[in-house]
Amino acid sequence: MLKVIDHPLIRHKLTVMRDKDTGTKDFRDNLDEIGGLMVYEVTRDLPLKDLEIETPICPYVAKTLATPIVVAPILRAGLGMVSGILSLIPTAKVAHIGLYRDEETLEPHTYFEKYPKHMDESTVIIVDPMLATGGSSAAAIDMVKRQGATNIKLVCLVGAPEGVELIEKLHPDVDIYLAALDERLNENGYIVPGLGDAGDRIFGTK
Ligand code: URA
């Protein structure tokens, strides 16, 4: 399932991010804020379980989240969305998935992975701002599945149709959330119109 989360605040903040004249601080701040805004929709269908509590008035069977939540950023650009998501889900654990894209073949390579316990019981939210070819996201989904995860969501900021198609083909069980679905990839693998290299813009590198 693909869900493009269309909201005026998200559109406004994404426009700031797309502008080539936006500097590192504003780019980072807006990414964080969009991450937080997207959480509301991404977590809409999280399973709940009963919890017996006592209110100051009476015993009450309330609802609480049924699964642990793991946020799994794909390094390094995914890190830019973590704190916005954690501001709404402060009890989430954070996995780290280190992948880099070979500049020529555009194929993903793993250089680091670290997970919390109980991945098999958790809702795992993989985050990466740019869903371009989909290669890195598909590889990250394979990695968390090898850890036993079965409830997986992919949260990106901007997607290209090529990336969405690949994930839908390889991982039809994974829900994809985007703030925008852009037109296409260019010959260098960048999303058009996109926002450039998300990692460089978050961290101020070149
Ligand atoms: N990665 C980026 O950072 N930007 C793109 O446009 C595509 C992949």
Could you describe the 3D structure shown?
- 32% of the residues lie in helices and 31% in strands.
- The radius of gyration is 17 Å and the shape is globular.
- The longest helix is centred in the N-terminal third of the chain and has 19 residues, at 24-42.
- The chain is an alpha/beta fold.
- The strands form four sheets. Strands 1, 4, 5, 6, 7, 8, 10 and 12 form an eight-stranded mixed β-sheet that branches. A three-stranded parallel β-sheet has the order 9-11-13. A two-stranded antiparallel ribbon has the order 2-3.
- It is built from six helices and 15 strands.
- The mean pLDDT is 96.
- The structure holds uracil.
- Residues 77, 130, 132, 189-191, 194, 197-199 line the site of uracil.
Bound molecules: uracil
> In total, how many beta strands?
15
What about the largest sheet? 8 strands, mixed
Q: H/E series, N to C?
A: EHHEEEHEEEEEHEEHEEEEH
End-to-end CA span: 34 Å
EC number: 2.4.2.9
Protein name: Uracil phosphoribosyltransferase
Enzyme class: transferase
Keywords: Glycosyltransferase, Transferase
